[in-house]
Amino acid sequence: MRNAGAIVEKQETRVRLLLVLASASALAAVDLFVKLTLPTPEWAFHQRSDEWVALSLLLLVGAAALARVPSRAVAVAAGVMSGGVLGNLVSAMWDGNRVPNPFVIGNPFVGGVAFNLADVTFFVGNLVLTVALVGMTIRNRDRLIPPRRLVRALYLRARG
């Protein structure tokens, strides 16, 4: 019977990974469609570095790893966050590491803000992911290492 539990958990992890990938892909596709259809003033393109590209890829890998957390809410939130990362990453690759920001609030020369749907998706995804992870931690607080044991373990590990 022990193997049956492991098989079920593996299948559930695959479902959560699918939730991450599906929500990320759908939201990135909507963002890319908006960027293709709405005009962006030349000043509203944000230049991205190779380090930003590397960090974006690392965030996508980290979000996929969150599928191992036994919570569908965490998986969907990771997918929402990933949708923003993926949308900006793909558009940067298309435009020579420049990300278009078709939504403009205010005057571009005096405190104006330019952003895109991927920015909003990333921000909302981070908020929801934080809430989902905090909720998961609170629900499973009985499984956490007690603070004194944790401090001692970290101290011993640091001393080598």
Question: Main traits of this protein?
Answer:
single chain; 160 residues; mainly alpha; two-stranded antiparallel ribbon; 5 helices; 4 strands; 69% helix; elongated
Short note summarizing the structure:
The chain is mostly helical and 160 residues long. It contains five helices and four strands.
What do these coordinates show?
It is a single chain. A hairpin with a 2-residue loop joins strand 3 (103-107) and strand 4. 69% of the residues lie in helices and 11% in strands. Helix 1 packs parallel to helix 3 and helix 3 runs antiparallel to helix 4. It has one domain. The protein is elongated. A two-stranded antiparallel sheet has the order 1-2. A two-stranded antiparallel sheet has the order 3-4. It has five helices and four strands; from the N terminus they run αβααβββαα. It has helices at 2-37, 50-65, 72-94, 117-139, 147-159, and strands spanning 45-47, 98-100, 103-107, 110-115. With 160 residues, the chain is mainly alpha-helical.
Count of helical segments?
A: 5
Task: Note the gap between the termini.
Answer: 40 Å
Largest β-sheet summary: 2 strands, antiparallel
Please report the total strand number as a whole number: 4
Broad structural category: mainly alpha
Cα shape = elongated
Note the run of SSEs as H and E.
HEHHEEEHH
Report the uncertain regions: none
Strand content: 5-15%
Radius of gyration (CA) equals 20 Å
Proportion in helices: 55-70%
Q: How many structural domains can be distinguished in the coordinates?
A: 1
Biggest sheet strand line-up:
1-2
Please state the average pLDDT score. Answer: 91
